[in-house]
């Protein structure tokens, strides 16, 4: 599973959860909070991505991720 | 058939509008939309986990004949507001409800999940046939101890108790035997490490709730052949820390289990979920009683026309969760209606922000261990509206040599 695919999966779910977000604004350098996702949206995106990819990541590891790139990196480290 | 014979909720005698609380604390009004809440219950200095539990259960117990009352052979209080490391809230509740001495008495703790865990264990015991005709009383009871340090969680925290009477004549909800799913693992998403301190990690907590919803339902679907999130349940009743999270949980499940668009998800939410949120939206989070407050809400707000299957989800931080189901019949409406929950919630005295902070100075001490303390209920009636609880009311009058003292008003 390459990084681009992981990133696209994250982007797809962000836009699905908050349809007001322009997909072009979703880049590895920004955080979901910057894009306007509130804490409920963020939790929803992460659980949907994990479900979609069939990945199990210990919850504490999601703590304090600075941007979407770091989330993708975390997913990559835990991919099956 | 084993299930809930009767259900009642006590949510205090006072409440505050969330706009008032947001103004007083300088919170961002834009975030009110995320919470989807209007009011929350506010505790008074003569209320504690014991009085809340008794005041919720008393109308149920009083409505039984002495013979029926004697058949309550299990009493459990479920709380994250313990009043002692050893002595249970249930021991006081047992006394003030006047229950039989041949009764198993226990307290359970697993954050907001404990009541449902005990409802399931009690249902299993009742179904065992070891004591035919026995009843079990599970009471979820809690108080709020947070102030401004908790930020938005202060606005979502409720006060009160839900009493659930279980037996073999389930007029409110017949529990589907063997139909459940579990998901639990260790995480520190929220906790109460001190008697006046609730800690919460919002991101971790929201994630764990949504994660457990998906996974406990997956476990349910593994056990129950043909179970489908979109079609098996006529109604959904989810643990409601705040209504906004339930809405997100429903949306997420619909995305995972159906291919329908946003409009259909919204319509499904309005039909199957929204009636369960009316009471939580004006009470706040009742901890492990929250899912039973939501069950009362859906029955009172959307009349049951025919036997309908309800999917219930209970989540407790820490964390443990369960997805279970049951059937509500048309008689549930008039039975529950006798408790006049909506009327009593509407009658709670509206307190302003200044009054709220004055009360909080006293009520935050509720769980702090003290050898001796005197509480004069007469000092606080101005903050209460008795119409919120027309019957006899148990009040805390103090603590004497570590023994909590109560009286009726």
Automatic annotation (TrEMBL), chain A:
Keyword Phosphoprotein attached: yes
SMART domains per the UniProt record, alphabetical: PKS_PP
Superkingdom per UniProt: Bacteria
Residues in Carrier domain copies: 4-79
Transmembrane segments: none
Keywords annotated in UniProt: Phosphopantetheine, Phosphoprotein
InterPro entries reported in the protein's UniProt record: ACP-like_sf, PKS_PP-bd, PP-bd_ACP
Protein name: Acyl carrier protein
Organism for this UniProt entry: Kitasatospora cystarginea
TrEMBL record, chain B:
Hydroxymethylglutaryl-coenzyme A synthase N-terminal domain segment(s): 73-168
Domain Hydroxymethylglutaryl-coenzyme A synthase C-terminal: 265-363
Keyword Transferase attached: yes
InterPro entries per record: HMG_CoA_synt_C_dom, HMG_CoA_synth_N, Thiolase-like
Keywords for the protein's UniProt record, in alphabetical order: Transferase
A Pfam short name: HMG_CoA_synt_N
Family: Belongs to the thiolase-like superfamily. HMG-CoA synthase family.
Protein's recorded name: Hydroxymethylglutaryl-CoA synthase
């Amino acid at each position: 599973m390459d990084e681009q695919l992981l990133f696209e999966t994250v982007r797809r779910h962000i836009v699905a959860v908050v349809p007001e977000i322009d997909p072009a604004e979703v880049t590895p350098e920004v955080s979901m909070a910057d894009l306007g996702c509130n804490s409920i949206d963020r939790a929803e995106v992460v659980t949907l991505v994990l479900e979609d990819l069939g990945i199990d990541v210990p919850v504490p590891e999601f703590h304090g991720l600075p941007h979407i790139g770091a989330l993708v990196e975390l997913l990559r480290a835990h991919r099956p | 058939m084993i299930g809930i014979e009767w259900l009642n909720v006590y949510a205090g005698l006072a409440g505050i509008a969330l706009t008032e609380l947001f103004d007083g604390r300088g919170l961002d009004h834009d975030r009110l939309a995320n919470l989807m809440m209007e009011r929350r219950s506010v505790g008074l200095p003569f209320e504690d986990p014991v009085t809340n539990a008794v005041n919720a259960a008393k109308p149920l117990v009083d409505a039984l004949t002495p013979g029926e009352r004697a058949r309550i052979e299990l009493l459990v209080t479920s709380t994250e507001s313990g009043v002692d490391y050893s002595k249970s809230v249930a021991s006081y509740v047992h006394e003030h409800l006047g229950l039989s001495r041949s009764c198993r008495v226990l307290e359970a703790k697993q954050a907001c999940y404990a009541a449902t865990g005990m409802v399931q264990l009690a249902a299993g015991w009742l179904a065992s046939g070891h004591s035919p005709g026995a009843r079990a009383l599970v009471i979820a009871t809690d108080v709020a101890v947070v102030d401004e340090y908790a930020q938005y969680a202060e606005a979502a925290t409720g006060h009160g108790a839900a009493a659930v009477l279980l037996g073999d004549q389930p007029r409110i909800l017949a529990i589907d035997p063997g139909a459940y799913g579990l998901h639990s693992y260790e995480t520190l998403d929220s906790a109460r490490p001190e008697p006046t301190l609730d800690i919460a990690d919002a991101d971790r907590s929201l994630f764990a709730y949504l994660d457990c919803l998906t996974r406990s339902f997956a476990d349910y679907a593994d056990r129950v052949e043909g179970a489908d999130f979109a079609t098996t349940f006529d109604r959904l009743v989810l643990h409601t820390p705040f209504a906004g999270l339930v809405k997100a949980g429903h949306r997420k499940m619909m995305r995972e289990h159906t291919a329908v668009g946003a409009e259909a998800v919204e319509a499904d939410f309005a039909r199957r979920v929204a009636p369960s949120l009316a009471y939580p939206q004006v009470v706040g989070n009742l901890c492990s009683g929250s899912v039973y407050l939501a069950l009362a809400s859906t029955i009172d707000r959307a009349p049951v026309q025919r036997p309908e299957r309800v999917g219930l989800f209970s989540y407790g931080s820490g964390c443990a969760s369960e997805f279970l189901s049951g059937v509500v019949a048309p008689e549930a409406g008039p039975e529950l209606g006798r408790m006049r929950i909506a009327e009593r919630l509407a009658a709670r005295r509206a307190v302003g922000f200044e009054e709220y902070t004055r009360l909080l100075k006293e009520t935050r001490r509720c769980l702090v261990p003290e050898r001796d303390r005197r509480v004069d209920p007469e000092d606080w009636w101005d903050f209460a509206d008795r119409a919120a609880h027309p019957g006899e009311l148990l009040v805390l009058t103090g603590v004497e040599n570590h023994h909590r003292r109560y009286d009726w008003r």
